[in-house]
Amino acid sequence: MRFALIVLLACSLALAEAGTWKQSQDYTMDDLDRSPKWLDSSSDAWPQDVTGYPESNWLIHKVEKRMERLHNTNEQIRTRIIDYVSEQLRRCKSGNIMDEHCVRRSVGYAMSFINNQERQAL
Q1: Closest Cα partner for 71 from 25, 26, 114, 22?
Q2: Keyword annotations for this protein (predicted)?
Q3: Which of 9, 50, 69, 117 has its CA 20 to 30 A from that of 39?
Q4: Tell me, what's the pLDDT at 88?
């Protein structure tokens, strides 16, 4: 009887700890929106129809950081990248709602496109 009680107590503590850990690991777009420094003056190049959504700020930030590291960057390449990513973000819109999961899936496409543009510029 004691053994069963101890096992039950240990299992309930483990489940409670796992739930707390899971909550601390979840991060939502709300967490990302609290950082206004993400969108700097270079963000003026992005179309208003995609920057008006907090969910898009995350991808825009990642793309801008990646473009900063481009070796042979010029305005034409930058414009192509912004146009491509903006189109990806527009596909994630449904009415006045931006699908957060769609935005996250678009990261790989955007980074691949940037790599292709960089290779073509070399």
Answers
A1: 114
A2: Signal
A3: 117
A4: 94
